[in-house]
Design brief:
single chain; 442 residues; Nucleotidyltransferase, domain 5; two-stranded antiparallel ribbon; 12 strands; 16% strand; RNase H type-1 domain-containing protein; RNase_H-like
Length: 442
């Protein structure tokens, strides 16, 4: 731990209340301590020891910051760091590698270890809804660790070779057992014909990759990625039954077993609900492509008849999905305070934000300041925080993605909306259901 201290110490962030932390030797900007950031050649002014000395009446002393710090760093602090509140509360340290802000050895190890980029192949092998034994079988196949005769010869175990899958036996190879034999060929052909996939002339790995990379709807991708694993599993079971028990399994039985054991899809009907009479509803959403990556926020306001009163989307700097969701709610609350609305429902598809704002979960350190601002904006309002599924948050989701693709946008009424937005508004007013389709874990 002592050897790694210099590598991880800058991950401690001080959340300022009184501002008693060291200007130069504590990390209160999120970038690291200023002594290290500015470099050894920088002439730093040691007459300033505490952060509170850089403020004036609860605001940053801009001239002082620009005088003692490099201009870029001073501008960053002015724009992104909240000055100390002046309260007598103690400044508190947060561990930036953990959402709860508490130090753990696990997060420290994950930070300093050298880890390779995740391999998509293994993500597809360990697909949600596939039992461990089936996914492990696919992993063994991908690593050529299946004990068929040709693999045993490569491992130095010589002996006669016979395929147990065919009436006219051939040499037993991975390709023959799982692709070229009559049973395997008919099984693959059955499922590929329904999926519209062509596998003629392809090798075994290529066939599997065709299924994994199929261009299909997002809701169906787990099925396409799971099916090869179940086909391989059933073909291997058939081979072992024939070799060790002398029992045959028909093609139709294999197809039935694959179909029966495939992940089940749960379908949920989701509706956008009207607010009660006299109330207004904000739908908010944050988007982050890459998480962290290109991000945006969006919110829309509708009355008890479902009519749009205002909608806004804005791009953000690269950040996480949690920050984007918090920013969306904060901007909606600011708009509510400015417009002087009193009976408000704020609906988000982020379970985390809903639980945090209801004070049921701990506040992640990275959005603690925004959560305080949200509560301050809504202090004198009659408000309700609600969670909805993503499918019930279509308009805000569309605006957030539009902000990433095309930049900031504001709409004050239905007629100013683009065609896609109008369609969503009309569908919501007509109570048209959206279907949420997700695989169910076994």
């Amino acid at each position: 731990m002592l050897q790694a201290r210099d590598l991880i110490e800058h991950q401690i962030l001080w959340r300022m209340k009184k501002g008693s932390v060291s200007v130069w030797h504590d990390n209160w900007t999120g970038l690291g301590d200023l002594y290290t950031i500015t470099g050894e050649d920088f002439e730093w002014d040691d007459s300033y020891t505490k952060v509170e000395e850089l403020t004036n009446q609860g605001k940053w002393n801009v001239e002082m910051l620009k005088d003692i710090l490099p201009l870029e760093l001073a501008e960053y602090i002015i724009q992104h760091i909240h000055p100390p509140t002046g309260k007598e509360e103690k400044d508190t340290p947060c561990w930036m590698l953990d959402s709860g802000g508490s130090f753990t050895v696990k997060t420290s190890w994950q930070y300093i270890r050298h880890k390779e980029e995740p391999n998509k192949i293994y993500k597809w092998i360990w697909t949600k809804g596939v039992p461990f034994k089936v996914a492990f079988m696919m992993w063994r196949l991908w690593k050529f660790k299946i004990p068929v005769d040709d693999r045993l010869r490569r491992w130095g175990l010589e002996g006669p070779s016979k395929c147990w899958c065919c009436e006219r036996p051939d040499q037993e190879t991975l390709t023959h057992v799982f692709l070229r034999s009559f049973t395997a060929n008919r099984t693959w052909f059955y499922f590929c014909s329904f999926a519209g996939l062509s596998i003629s002339g392809l090798q075994l790995r290529e066939v599997i990759m065709v299924w994994w990379g199929a261009n299909t709807k997002k809701a169906l991708r787990p099925l396409y990625r799971a099916l090869p694993s179940f086909v391989i599993w059933e073909l291997w079971r058939r081979r072992n039954r024939m070799k060790h028990e002398g029992r045959k399994t028909s093609v139709s039985r294999i197809i039935y077993n694959v179909t029966r054991n495939m992940p089940r899809m749960k379908v949920t009907k989701v509706l956008w609900e009207y607010p009660p009479e006299g109330w207004l509803k904000y739908n908010t959403d944050g988007a982050s492509r890459g998480n962290p990556g290109l991000s945006s926020y969006a919110f829309c306001l509708r009355n008890d008849r479902g009519d749009i009163k205002y909608a806004e989307g804005g791009s953000m700097e690269n950040t996480t999905n949690t920050v984007a969701e918090a920013k969306a709610i904060l901007e909606a609350c600011k708009h509510c305070k400015q417009s002087q609305y009193n009976q408000i429902i704020i609906q988000t598809d982020s379970m985390l934000m809903c639980k945090v704002l209801k004070e049921q979960w701990l506040v992640p350190w990275i959005i603690a300041d925004m959560v305080e601002e949200i509560k301050a904006c809504m202090k004198d309002k009659q408000h309700i925080f609600q969670h909805t599924l993503r499918e019930g948050n279509k308009l805000a989701d569309y605006l957030a993605n539009r902000a990433i693709d095309k930049g900031n946008c504001r709409f004050s009424d239905f007629n100013s909306m683009e065609v896609t937005g109008r369609k969503i508004i009309n569908s919501d007013k007509l109570k048209c259901p959206y279907l949420r389709i997700v695989p169910v874990r076994r």
